[in-house]
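INFO batch 0412 | record 1 of 1 | parsing
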Amino acid sequence: MPRSLAAFGIVLAMLVGRPAAAQTPAVQTPAAGEADPGVRPTRLIDRAEVRVTRVEIQAGSTRRVHTHDDVEYHLWIPIEGQLQLAIGSEAPVAAAAGQAFFLKRGTPHGFKNVGTTPGAILEIFIKQTKTAGGQDPLGALLLDLAALRDANPLPQ
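INFO prediction complete | emitting tokens
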């Protein structure tokens, strides 16, 4: 239980404590570590069950349409900036900070920063829902959080 909560706390601290990056000029080819020009993913957690990535995207930059065939599903969560997300053959939709979008394995998607300031996205990829021992790690985390809540009820 403490390890699950510690990992959750680290991810939360990285989201809240990270200052906005200064705007940099767009380049024609991706720099080292960029998926597309102006799109920089940073891996925060990579375990057998889950991968968490923070993606920084410069103003006007686009992450071309792609799929994730190595995961069961993933959550795409904008955390800052003025972003648009295209899923499958649907028209792009505005994606405000704090929204969450659910995508299954192999779903084509791409996104763009349509604003004038840098943006950021948190992607949470669920790679497997059962461990080798048959345990459901997400269910175990929920049970840990419920036990913590029960042990430390909020004052009424």
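INFO post-check: The CA atoms of residues 72 and 144 lie 23 Å apart.
INFO record closed
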